[in-house]
Amino acid sequence: MNVPVSRPSPSATRRGRPSEPPERARILIVDDDERNLLAIRTVLEDIADVVLARSGEDALRQLLKGEFAVILLDVYMPGMDGYETAQIIRAREQTKRIPIIFLSAVNKETEHLIRGYSMGAVDYVFKPVEPVVLRSKAAVFVDLYMMTREVRRKARQEQELLDANLRANAERLRAEQELRLAEQRQAAIIHSLPLVLYLEDQDATPRMPKFVSGNFTAVTGFSYDDVVATPTLWLDRLHPEDRNRVADALSARRQGRAYAVEYRWQCADGTYKHFLDQAVLLRDADGRPLEYAGTLLDVTDRKNLETQLLHVRKMDALGQLTGGIAHDFNNLLAAVLGGLGLIERRVTLADDQRKVLDMTRHAAQQGAELVSRLLAFARKQKLEPAHIDMAELSSSVTQLLGYTLGGLVALEWELQDDLWSPYADETQLELALMNLAINARDAMPEGGKIRIACRNVSIGTGNEAAAGDYVVLAVSDTGCGIPPDMLERVTEPFFTTKAVGKGTGLGLSMVYGFAQQSGGTMRIESHVDQGTVVELWLPRAPEAARRPAAPAIDSTSAGNRGRHILLVDDHEGVRATTAAMLEDLGHMVVTAADGEHVSQLIQADHLQAIDFIISDYAMPLVSGSEVIRKLRAVKPGLPGIIISGYADKEAISGAPEGVIVVSKPFTPTQLQDAIVAAAHVSRN
User: Fold this and answer.
1) Under a CB-based contact definition with an 8 Å cutoff, are residues 661 and 655 in contact?
2) Sign of dihedral through CA atoms 72, 76, 78, 82?
3) Are 647 and 624 spatial neighbours (Cβ–Cβ below 8 Å)?
4) What is the mean pLDDT of residues 402-406?
5) How many angstroms separate the CA atoms of 591 and 568, rounded?
6) DSSP secondary-structure letter at 12?
């Protein structure tokens, strides 16, 4: 194997940069004669790096390793001669443009020269070689190679610069596009927000912004040109109650301090919006004040939500207060009405005395009705929801209101086709509709029409009422309407827009409480001098709510006979009047003040004759439900009644099986009917 002898290129020894071209050009000398190789290398090594090859095969291997400026190729060599080697070199894409100079000691004839040129030679040098001629010819191709390489290098550099410039332009274009997109997004976000950005001089008098953001018109209804045309516009449209407070807050501008103030401002459509006005003072590099940069934020929705939350909390507080005192009130009223009943039954009264008694009873009954309405508002009354036939209900309410509405007011019903049935307490719904109708009548002193329209509504999530199906009963009138500042208060107990003595202020609060407790809601829309619409939203009755009529109870059965009754109540007045009422009904009564007293009776075995129990629900230490359970442990199946001045859901759900709950105050007839019903349940 022939190993080329050549001067190593400095660039060839550099590591990490194998693709970098050598600093000097290279010349490939191919000859099988060692002496010729050494002689030619000596002539050419000062103009280029010389690589030696001793055969055609060796030359082809060297050509695979790199580029050459020119090839000096001996024509006659053993094996693969110069012509064949040149032909292969010209056939390869990588080497076909390398100049080839044939070296020949013979064959100077024209036909041999033409053959050489046809094989790709660019020149001939005949042996013995003339150094000056060889050097001159090789130098031409070396210079041409070096210039070509320099042209390529510059072209590559220019292309790299062009590519870099294109990349830079593309990056700049992309950055500009992203910047424009970001600006568009920011503008869209600002336009979608109830927010105005502004710039304003520190000492502007009257207040006049130099710049406002594009959504100023959307927030206020005015354009910036309107503000410029009327410099006092901002001050003129401040709510009168807020002007002094705003002026005090803006005085901070004179000291260069930041400020924040909330106020009401009248927009172009005449409505007031709540604005949160905040600004900071911008300064230059030397600390000198430039201008105020601020934001005007529409917080109307937030204020409305705060008002609603405050209203809900106030209603809950009133409801808790109402529920807490209702039991005591009902105990007092039960004692009063029971005592009046005893007097009426046991004492012969003159006519004037009976009038006084009737007046007293009427006042006590009004008190009981008042407590009932308070419980309805507190949503703690006992409700018995059921499937309601709206056609029958409309007929019943129309009859009840026939004489109440008078001749100047007409009642009109409008029931949607295929109207669903609401699921609610029918008695309370009748009372609610009567309250709304009477309110509508009072709003139309000169007469008019009350319209009750019923329709089906299905709603999804995100509404005031829970998602589901509702029957909406809308009671509308064409009366005087309710002022906007009073709308949010009309459901408060004891608040009324009527004259003194014309209303208790419990009508709408009772309706509101009934709707909430029934799983629905109430909505009010009113316009002054145009009328009011009150909507009751009640849940749709499920098919399972269609219950068959309860079988009639035979009042002549054994359940109506005189009984041995244990009466338990911690209120002395109620205990005494109820015991007297039971005795007047023909029953024998044993009384106990509380659960502890009952336990003593059990231990003393004084309950052998007892066949009925009547107990108050809310008592110290032991509830009425527990009293009945203790007695039933001794006398299983003992029938009983729970009487309660605060008949809430917990009392009903906690009552033992078969026990009937009766609300205080009650009449002798109601009490006797409950005794008969409880006895009937215990037998079945």
Assistant:
1) yes
2) positive
3) no
4) 72
5) 6
6) G
Backbone angles phi and psi of 168, in degrees to 5: -65, -40
Task: Tell me the DSSP string of 112-124.
Answer: HHHHHHHTT-SEE
Residue-wise pLDDT for 79-126, tens only, equals 888 888 888 888 888 888 889 988 887 666 666 677 777 777 788 888
Here the tokens at position 297 are 């934020």
In the chain, the amino acid numbered 591 is T
Distances (CA, A) of 268 to 216, 220, 226: 12, 6, 11
Query: In the chain, what percentage of residues exceed pLDDT 90?
Result: 11
Give the confidence band of 288 by pLDDT, cuts at 50, 70, 90: confident
Burial (CB count <10 Å: 0-12, 13-18, 19+), residue 203:
exposed
Answer whether 50's CB lies under 8 Å from 6's CB.
Answer: yes
| 604 or 163, greater pLDDT | 163
Report the distance separating Cα 212 and Cα 232, nearest Å: 16
Contact 81, 59 (CB under 8 A): no
The stretches of 268-299 forming alpha helices (DSSP H) are none
Q: For residues 522 and 488, give the distance between their C-alpha atoms in angstroms, rounded to a whole number.
A: 12
Question: Is 80 exceeded by the pLDDT of residue 344?
Answer: no
Q: Please write down the HEC assignment for all residues of 537-606.
A: EEEECCHHHCCCCCCCCCCCCHHHCCCEEEEECCCHHHHHHHHHHHHHCCCEEEEECCHHHHHHHHHCCC
Tokens of 100: 């080839």
Which positions ≥6 away from 92 have C-beta within 8 Å? 63
List the beta bridge partners of residue 415: 454
**Helices and strands of the chain, counted as H and E runs:** 20, 22
Residue 501: pLDDT band by 50, 70, 90 thresholds? very low
Select from 427, 462, 372, 319 the least CA-distant residue to 647: 372
DSSP 597-656: HHHHHHHTT--SS--EEEEESS-SSS-HHHHHHHHHHHSTT--EEEEESS--HHHHHHSP
pLDDT at site 293: 87
Question: Would you list the DSSP string of 133-174?
Answer: HHHHHHHHHHHHHHHHHHHHHHHHHHHHHHHHHHHHHHHHHH
d(CA 353, CA 644): 31
The contacts found for 366-372 with CB under 8 angstroms, 24 or more apart, are 367/329, 367/333, 368/330, 368/333, 368/337, 368/665, 370/504, 370/506, 371/326, 371/329, 371/330, 371/333
Q: Read off the pLDDT of residues 543-602 as tens digits, 9 standing for 90 and up.
A: 766 655 444 445 444 445 688 898 988 888 888 888 888 888 889 988 888 877 887 777
- 656 token code pair: 């033992």
